[in-house]
Amino acid sequence: MTIVITAFERSPDGGKGLARDTRVRWALEETGQPCEVRLVSFQAMKEPAHLRLHPFGQIPTYEEGDLVLFETGAIILHLAQRHTGLLPGDADARARAVAWMFAALNTVEPPILDLVIARIHEGDKPWAAQRLPLVEARVRQRLVQLSARLGDAPWLDGGFSAGDLMMVSVLLRLRASGILDEFPDLAAYVARGEARPAYRRAFAAQWAINAPQPHAG
What we know:
The protein has about 220 residues and is of the alpha+beta class. It has helices at about 20-30, 40-45, 50, 70-80, 90-120, 130-150, 160-170, 185-195, 195-210; strands spanning about 5-10, 35-40, 60-65, 65-70.
C-alpha cells in the first residue's frame, strides 16, 4: 500500500528542514518506507479536500490505504510501532522512547515555539523588549534540564529512537536564535541527528522542492 504524505508547496522556512513534514520524511527514511509526497499550497490547505485529512488545515498528513493520520507525533508513533528502526525491542525501553517523544512535543517544543512567535511575529510590539527575555529564560530552563539528563550519552536512552528523532527536530528550531550554541552538548546531539543518513536523505528531498531556483539567462 503506497504511503502518501502532504507537504508545503513552498515551505515558509525555504527548505531548511523546519517544516514538520521533514520529521515524517525522516521517520520514513529510518524505517525504510517509500512514500509519495503531495504538495499543497496555503490556499489548498484551507479547502474542504485537505480539511478532510487535517481538520486544522495544516501539514503533514499521512495516508495509507483507508488510514488517514495527522499530527507528526501520531504519524511517527504509527510508523515506529509498525516498522523496525525507531523503537527498541525491549518493552520498557520502547515505553521510554515514546515518553521522550511526548516530552519533545509537550514539554520542550512549546517554549521554543513561543520564542519563535516572540521573535518573528511580536518583535515590533511595544512590549516585545520586556517579554522576550522571559520567553528566552523559559527555553533555557528546559535546555538546562535536558542537558543534565543527556549528559555524555550520544542519545537520550540507549540507542537512537523515535524519541531522539522528535527531540532533534524540535531543537533544530533553536539554531537561528543562537541559544542552542550555549549548550555545546545539545548542539552536538542535534548535529549527530543531522548526520544520520536517513536525516540527510529527508532533508535533501525537502530542499529539492524549496531551494531557490537559479535565474535563467
